[in-house]
Amino acid sequence: MSDNKPVIVLVRPQLGENIGKAARAMLNFGLTEMRLVSPRDGWPNPSAGPAAAGADVVLERAQVFANLAEAVADCAHVYATTVRKRGVTKPVLTPEEACHDVHGQTGRSAFVFGPERSGLETDDVALARAIITVPINPEFGSLNLAQAVILCAYEWSKGADLVQPTVEDLLPPAPQDELEGMIAQFEALLEPRGYFRPPSRAAATRRTLRNMLTKPGWNHLEVRTMRGVLSALERRIEAESPEEG
After folding, report:
1. Domain segments of the chain as ranges
2. pLDDT in tens, 11-38
3. How confident is the model at residue 166 (pLDDT cuts 50, 70, 90)?
4. In this structure, are strands 34-37 and 130-132 parallel, antiparallel, or unpaired?
5. Under CATH, which number does the domain 7-158 receive?
6. CB-based contacts of 10: which residues, under 8 Å, 6+ apart?
7. DSSP H or E stretch at residue 71
8. 23 Rama class: left (phi>0) / alpha (psi -120 to 50) / beta
9. Is the pTM of this model over 0.70?
């Protein structure tokens, strides 16, 4: 797998909260290098930390540049993210296509994002080698900054060696004899209470009950739990029944 992590470049970001949210999006998918081009409210920004929700390492390492050319000077592959082509003739890629290229290329890569209100200017896009865009509702093309960052970060992560969230180990299916014991317990509880009447339907009713109880693929713990429920009901019924004298 490629370890060529792209740089995330935010051009003239307006709100510290949005910078923090972008950092949070980055770190969720293993990206840590953020570069800021002329942030409107300066840097560092006290509003960024709370919005980052723990992604402090990204904010602490963030670098500030006076212009985009300086911010991407060491990057061989620069991708401008925009929903509009801005009249510039460039290859147009989806985030998935761009990230596939990043994993297969040598040299540093940068994903460039514009200001929240207006997006990248034509001169910003002109610095890029390619444009990243996504199919979007033509009547409402309005992704916020963190959403745009997370689209690219996620697609990059699909080709990286990130650890998958822990999945709870599934217990093996219960052996047949445990299922038979549970079914027998059901029948013993239901039989004296007339559940299998009339006699002409008893076999079919038992068969339906068996099919229902074997369908879920019970594991050992589930069978034990259900039998515990049945035992509790049995004890309650016996306690409430009048004593024979």
Report:
1. 7-158, 176-240
2. 999 999 999 999 999 999 999 999 999 9
3. low
4. unpaired
5. 3.40.1280.10
6. 19, 22, 34, 35, 36, 37, 39, 113, 145
7. helix 68-71
8. alpha
9. no
